Amino acid sequence: MQQAVAMPGNLNAAGAPPSEGLRERKQRETRQRIAEVALRLFLADGYDGTTLEAIAAAADISRRTFFSYFKSKDEIILFGMEADSAELIAELLKTSPDVPPLDAVRDVMVKRIARHTTEEMTAIDNLMLSSESLLARKQAFYAKQEQALFVALREVWRQPERQTALRMVAMVSMGAMRLALQAWREQTGKRKPAAQFLHDAFESLRAEL
């Protein structure tokens, strides 16, 4: 099963930075190829069962070249998570300030998570649970994403008096995401998509406000 790893940053329609040169383009494509190859190997052979040598060989590069792009297997996973987060933030920044902030974050988060099939989500979730180091990096990532959400919210809704409320929106939004993914993971029987759990979590939150 292949899971695409998006590129972070300010990208144009072709997926490249607007002022990217030939060298930068080749580096970006190589980094992307390594990440995609590594994820396929992780899903096929397990995180611990995949060596750096296997990733380098599958990506058609040397082990030394691998370390020019990533320092560890954890960094590959983090690269994909940060890329997805960057795209989420980019979408949030396009939101009209007339939209309530909590609704805006909900819509963007649900849209992003709905892009992934249940099979993909399950495979990635199992991969994350298979490694203590990945779990630790995931917790740190949540804190980083909460801060990124807050910064983006302040950019769209710029009134200084709203900053405390916007900080709370970022906090409860990440809480809703974490609880929704936990509920999705623990469900039994016919599995509902993660996007439905996330939407329901935001609806429950709104009902209590």
UniProtKB/TrEMBL annotation:
Gene Ontology terms for molecular function: DNA binding
What does the record give as the DNA-binding region? 51-70
Q: Which PROSITE patterns match?
A: HTH_TETR_1, HTH_TETR_2
* Keywords recorded for this protein, A-Z: DNA-binding
Q: Does the keyword Nuclease apply?
A: no
Query: Cross-referenced Gene3D superfamilies, in alphabetical order?
Result: Tetracycline Repressor, domain 2
Stored SUPFAM superfamilies: Homeodomain-like (SSF46689)
Q: Which domain of life does the protein's organism represent?
A: Bacteria
Give the region (Disordered) as residue ranges.
Answer: 1-29
Q: Which InterPro entries match?
A: DNA-bd_HTH_TetR-type_CS, Homeodomain-like_sf, HTH-type_Tx_Regulator, HTH_TetR, MftR_C
Any Pfam family matching the protein? TetR_C_14
Q: Which PANTHER family match?
A: ACREF/ENVCD OPERON REPRESSOR-RELATED, ACREF_ENVCD OPERON REPRESSOR-RELATED
- UniProt protein name: Helix-turn-helix domain containing protein
